[in-house]
Amino acid sequence: MAWNEPGGNRNDNDPWGTGGGRRGNDQGPPDLDEALKKGLDKLNRMLGGKGGNSGGGSSSGGSAGGFGAILAIAAILVAGYVIYQSFYTVDEQERAVVLRFGEYNRTEEPGLRFKVPLIDTVNKVRVTSIRTAESSGQMLTQDENLVTVDLQVQYRVGDARAYVLNVRDSNQALAFATDSALRHEVGSSSLDDVLTEGRA
């Protein structure tokens, strides 16, 4: 008997396993909510969270993946910082004295320069500008007259290395040297010489 003969149409004769136009297992299209939930669980595992239906092994794998992502981001940030700190610019008016572990390494000319971060220290010195140091005080002349002398010294740095390394405080050292030289000069001159010939 054919499956579609009158009176003989039974569910077990349906070649597609359906009865009365309905599917035997009542299977519909994929559930959108279930697919969305699975996608969210997978995303949570990638970010280090725990998925809703994940077991212990899956949670551990997700946590490890999230930790690896954090390490990768940290490594990128550190690399960017190191690269940023490795380059510096020396202006036309400057010279850069580079110290490596506190010892003199080199003097750099103007331009874009490279240094080793945390190892090299760069000291920039202006070598074209004119600096001024002033000194003033009361001093005795050779004929024992008390005079007040004001002195102004103008200078330019000729050796950046010596300026950085030879003295701790160059301005203070210059002030002491100027005051000492001035007292010696005034003390060996008479009042007339200080007021006339020795006056600049």
Topology:
Blueprint: H1 32-46, H2 56-86, E1 87-90, E2 94-100, E3 103-108, E4 111-114, E5 120-126, E6 131-140, E7 146-155, H3 160-165, H4 170-187, H5 191-195
Antiparallel strand pairs: 1-4, 2-3, 2-5, 6-7
GO molecular function, one term: peptidase activity
GO cellular component, one term: membrane
Family: Belongs to the band 7/mec-2 family. HflK subfamily.
In short:
This is Protease modulator HflK. The protein has 200 residues and is α+β, with helices and mostly antiparallel strands.
Describe it.
By secondary structure, this protein is an alpha+beta fold. Among the domains are: 86-126, no CATH class; 131-195, no CATH class. 38% of the residues lie in helices and 24% in strands. It contains five helices and seven strands, in the order ααβββββββααα. The chain has helices spanning 32-46, 56-86, 160-165, 170-187, 191-195; strands at residues 87-90, 94-100, 103-108, 111-114, 120-126, 131-140, 146-155. Strands 3-2-5 form a three-stranded antiparallel beta sheet. Strands 1-4 form a two-stranded antiparallel sheet. It has a two-stranded antiparallel ribbon with strand order 6-7. β2 (94-100) and β3 form a beta hairpin. It is rod-shaped and about 110 Å long. Mean pLDDT is 77; it is low at 19-24 and 51-59.
Q: Into which percentage range does the β-strand content fall?
A: 15-25%
- In DSSP terms (H or I, runs of 4 or more residues), the helix count works out at 5
N-C termini distance: 137 Å
As an assembly, this protein is: single chain
Q: What order do the strands of the largest sheet run in, or round the barrel if closed?
A: 3-2-5
- Percent range for helical residues? 25-40%
Largest sheet: 3 strands, antiparallel
Structural class: alpha+beta
Please report the total strand number as a whole number: 7
Q: Low-confidence parts lasting 5 or more residues at pLDDT below 50?
A: 19-24, 51-59
Specify Rg, calculated over alpha carbons.
Answer: 44 Å
Shape: rod-shaped
Task: Give the topology string: H per helix, E per strand.
Answer: HHEEEEEEEHHH
Q: Look at the structure and give the mean pLDDT.
A: 77
Family: Belongs to the band 7/mec-2 family. HflK subfamily.
Pfam families: Band_7 (PF01145), HflK_N (PF12221)
Main location: membrane
InterPro entries: Band_7, Band_7/SPFH_dom_sf, HflK, Membrane_HflK_N, Stomatin_HflK_fam
